[in-house]
Amino acid sequence: MTPPEAPAQGNSLPGKQPPAVSSCSPVSVLQKRADFLLAARARRYGTSSMLVQARRRGSGEAEGIRVGFTCSKKIGNAVTRNRAKRRLRSVARDVIPELGRSGWDYVLVGKPGDTVAKPYTVLVDDFRRALNKLHGSDG
Q1: Where are the beta strands (DSSP E) in 1-134?
Q2: CA atoms of 124 and 60, how far apart (whole Å)
């Protein structure tokens, strides 16, 4: 049995990658540096395994929920950074549809050692707690 993102005939289309977030929800991925910088200047909440930055977009900006992922070289080599980002994407896939709010941008920033080493359930709990805190003053 092939994974859902694998092509049925075994040949892949160039540039075709599995989605970073679930395609059934109105979630898109941040890609422009300017969007990451805007989120960095907005609300933030640090947990033991990640830093979560969030901002409410103004009217006239993109629709739905947008999420971005970043890990600096402090995390480790490329293999370690990619593993940390994969774990953060998985956490976002599980939590954003439940607790994310439309009209918001979220950026998950990996922490050295902790994002890769902590159990997955701790990452999920940390992200849930961060979203609840970030939205707590918002009503």
Answers
A1: 27-29, 43-46, 50-56, 65-70, 104-110
A2: 31
Judge whether 110 and 39 are in contact, CB under 8 Å.
no
Token pair for 99: 């607790």
Please tell me the pTM assigned to this model: 0.78
Q: How many CB atoms lie within 10 A of CB 126?
A: 23
Q: What is the CA radius of gyration of the chain?
A: 16
Query: What string of pLDDT tens digits covers the 139 residues of the chain?
Result: 444 455 555 555 555 555 555 445 578 899 899 999 999 999 999 999 999 999 999 888 878 999 999 999 999 999 999 999 999 999 999 999 999 999 999 999 999 989 999 999 999 999 999 999 999 866 4
88 class by beta-carbon count within 10 Å (0-12 exposed, 13-18 middle, 19+ buried): buried
Q: Please, are residues 52 and 45 in contact by the beta-carbon 8 Å criterion?
A: yes
- Note whether 25 and 31 are within 8 A (CB): no
> Using an 8 Å Cβ cutoff, are 88 and 50 in contact?
yes
